[in-house]
Amino acid sequence: MKTKLVYRLDKPRSVQKYIDEAPVWRDGTPTSRVPMTSMQWRIWLLASAGKFFEGMVVFMTGVALPLIELDFELSPSEKGFASAATLTGILFGASLLGGLADTVGRKRMFIIEMLLFTLFLFGVVLAPSLNWLLVFLFGVGLALGCDYPTAHLMLSESIPSKNRGRLVLSAFGFQAIGALTGVLIGYGILSYYADEGAWRWMYAVVLIPSIVVLILRFFIPESPHWFIDKHRKKEAEASLAVLLKRDPPYPPTINIKMPVMKVSRSNGEREKRLGSGYKRLFSQHRRATLLASIPWFLQDLSTYGIGIFTPTILVTLFGAYNTEHHTVAAVIQNDLLAAKGTAFLDVFLLVGIVVAVIFTDRVGRVTLQIVGFIGCATGLLLAMFSLFFDGEGQVLMLFSGFILFNFMNSMGPNAQTYLIAGEVFPSSIRGKGAGFAASFAKLGAIITAFLFPLFLASFGVKILLLLLVLTSLLGAIVTWHLRIETSGKDLETL
Q1: Helices marked H in 322-363 — which ranges?
Q2: Are 449 and 59 contacting, i.e. CB atoms less than 8 angstroms apart?
Q3: How far apart (Å, rounded) are the C-alpha atoms in residues 305 and 469?
Q4: Residue 237: which of 249, 248, 221 has the closest Cα?
Q5: H-helix or E-strand containing 219?
Q6: Is pLDDT of 274 > 50?
Q7: Cα separation of 167 and 52, whole Å?
Q8: Mean pLDDT across 469-482
Q9: 461, 316 in Cβ contact below 8 A?
């Protein structure tokens, strides 16, 4: 006779306890895993899509930038503005829009950000001048910035604690898939449409999938954690029922236990003194804020510097770029050669994120972040030493250094900073905390994107790589000093 599962009918419990609940066999033995529902997988897929679009658009800029430079006849400073526009938008979007997820809801901002992304991306494709292009790229960044906290919260607040690290990082890993896809799209379009306007088609390719994702985001439930934080018990139970819908029904009934609010005169005075929202980030949760922000800032200095300008670095070092011939054919040929090398290196972003998914819950976020920072420094140092050699030795050392950097960065700080920022804050300010951390991090990306071309022209590749080695080592030191391990802890406990 086939054994059937039965389900516990316990007293009222918290949202996370329902999400983490595993079925038991008839003899009371718990099953080995918490089964994910189709709705939980749908939310995971839609959160993954946002990171995919970010990786595609931001890193595709590295391929599109030479054509944009030719199309609009950009000066070095204007090229810096073009490369930094999207990142600047991410900076403001993460805090100004992402922080609204604590006020108006996770789902609402999840939809609004994708609507803004689609509209501004359409503007990029049709931009008639540099000024308009900068406006639209900034708008795309606003939407992508909002996605940093909202996508993390929509996913992490909807899945079992046991799976949180792996699932959040696997969704974040789509940034690397998007980066590789963006470079391949750029290469493919250049191969069949060798024209200075080919960059418009690169961005246009993203429009159709963004519209599909926008529509699908209307058909998911709001985070029950957010409803509970707003003391809306009935809506939380209805949302949780949709999230955990299974056949047969499990759990059969939902009765959420509201958190007990103990308020005394001293507690009330303390809350008044601490304030709410962003003020609490720098008083009650200062250590968490520093941990979430500073290592991410240091990591983005190298991630976006190397990521966006890898084509430029490869062309500069290997002499494909001829400064005396800025013809369309010459620029496109240079772009194609650089895109090949960039695509090869981006593969190791994927390998790194796979390793992160496997080990983040076993080894811990902090350990992987520290090891990753040290690995990044080692890879960049190897790339810098390659400049003292010639011929095949230089090529081997340079690519080995960039391969090690991409792998260790994707396994460590690039993945773990994103994961930690969405876990170390309480639900009431989680959107603001994660949003601020992402905004502060993108300040580093903007500095790199804007100054990298100028530094490259003024000081050369050696000095730039040495500076990035030092910032990576500093990231490891700061992470160790401020460490807060979140692996294996549910969000309510945190």
Answers
A1: 328-363
A2: no
A3: 12
A4: 221
A5: none
A6: no
A7: 15
A8: 95
A9: yes
Give the CATH number of domain 38-219+286-482.
1.20.1250.20
pLDDT at 249: 78
Q: Does the bond joining 311 to the residue before it have cis omega, within 30 degrees of 0? A: no
Q: What is d(CA 235, CA 239) in angstroms, rounded to the nearest whole number?
A: 6
Rounded CA separation 58/18 (Å): 38
Q: Is the pLDDT of residue 333 over 60?
A: no
**pLDDT tens-digit profile of 6-52?**
545 557 888 988 898 877 766 667 677 788 999 999 999 999 999 99
Q: Which amino acid is at 361?
A: D
**Residue 161, φ and ψ in degrees, nearest 5:** -60, -35
CB atoms within 10 A of CB 234: 9
Q: Give per-residue pLDDT as tens, 222-248.
A: 999 999 989 999 999 999 999 999 887
Q: What φ, ψ does residue 251 adopt, rounded to 5°?
A: -70, 150
Collect all residues with Cβ–Cβ distance below 8 Å to 206 and sequence separation of at least 6: 53, 56, 57, 121
Q: Where are the domains of the chain?
A: 38-219+286-482
- Angle at alpha carbon of residue 205, lines to 200 and 211, rounded to 5°: 120
Given a contact cutoff of 8 angstroms between Cβ atoms, the answer to whether 60 and 190 are in contact is no
Look at residues 161, 183, 106 and name the one whose alpha carbon lies nearest to residue 342: 183
Query: Residues 6 or more apart from 113 whose CB is under 8 A from it?
Result: 50, 93, 97, 143, 144, 146, 147, 150
Cβ atoms within 10 Å of 278's Cβ, excluding its own: 15
What three-state secondary structure class fits 117? helix
Q: Give the helix ranges, DSSP H, for 157-216.
A: 161-172, 174-192, 198-204, 207-216
The 3-class secondary structure across 379-438, one letter per residue, is HHHHHHHHHHCCHHHHHHHHHHHHHHHHHHHHHCHHHHHHHHHCCCCCHHHHHHHHHHHH
Which pLDDT band holds residue 325 (cuts at 50, 70, 90)? very low
What single-letter DSSP state applies at residue 95?
I
Q: Determine the Cα–Cα distance for residues 422 and 121; give it in Å rounded to an integer.
A: 27
Residue 374, classified by CB atoms within 10 Å of its CB into exposed (0-12), middle (13-18) or buried (19+), is middle
CA dist., res. 154 & res. 217, Å (int): 11
Helix (H/G/I), strand (E/B), else coil: 310: helix
**pTM score of the predicted model:** 0.80
